[in-house]
Automatic annotation (TrEMBL):
Protein keywords: Metal-binding, Riboflavin biosynthesis
An example Gene Ontology biological process: riboflavin biosynthetic process
One GO MF term attached to the UniProt entry: metal ion binding
Protein name: Riboflavin biosynthesis protein ribBA
The organism of origin for this protein: human gut metagenome
Amino acid sequence: QLHSINEVLQDLKAGKPVIIVDDESRENEGDLIIAAEFATQENINFMVKYARGIVCTPMRREALEKLGIQA
């Protein structure tokens, strides 16, 4: 069942993971997303085990520099 953007945003704000899918004519895949402030060891492990993709997070340049990561 597909949900509206507003429903998805409400779920993300409530800490629920959501799956965002693209069009069949593109990659025909889904991305499992959770708001970073709700990321836990358990749900990151779930993503790695079952979504079997790359775990990504956006970061500000200042945070990258603090960690010694080149942007």
